[in-house]
Automatic annotation (TrEMBL):
It comes from the Eukaryota. GO terms for biological process: sensory perception of smell; signal transduction. This is Olfactory marker protein a. It comes from Pygocentrus nattereri (Red-bellied piranha).
Amino acid sequence: MTEEMELDFTEDLQLSEVMRLRVQSLQQKGQKRQDGERLLLPHEAVYRLDFSEQELTFSHWNVSLKGPGRLSVTGISQLWTPDLTNLMTRQLLEPTGQFWRSAGDPEDAPIKCLEADIQEFGERIAELAKVRKVMYFLFAFKEGAEKDNITCSLVFKKSAEA
């Protein structure tokens, strides 16, 4: 018998702030980013998933978005040590999760997404959960989306242990 487990993405305020300070520091010193470095943009924040169990099978995404806008979720392959390392572009996973609601869409209409991409992305997350206790993500809020109007979680099936 398989049991489901829902994991909520939670904003990592401290890590987002460290990344914002990096951008601010570069601007104040008039310096450029390192070659290949990925800086946090103003409409982005760092989120995390904490895995209490490692043997998971991806089931589906639960995303709600009030009003029009677009949410882009990008996985980060790095085990984070923000005090020692900067985020590099090569550490961003493909595909990204894209979810959106167009202006004029009824509130009860399903959210739009690139289904093949979010399925593949969810499966990659489940694979990484086998070796990770935590995983980090960049959330980008675009086209009017605001983080207060979005909830995002993943549902996994737990592998039944005999």
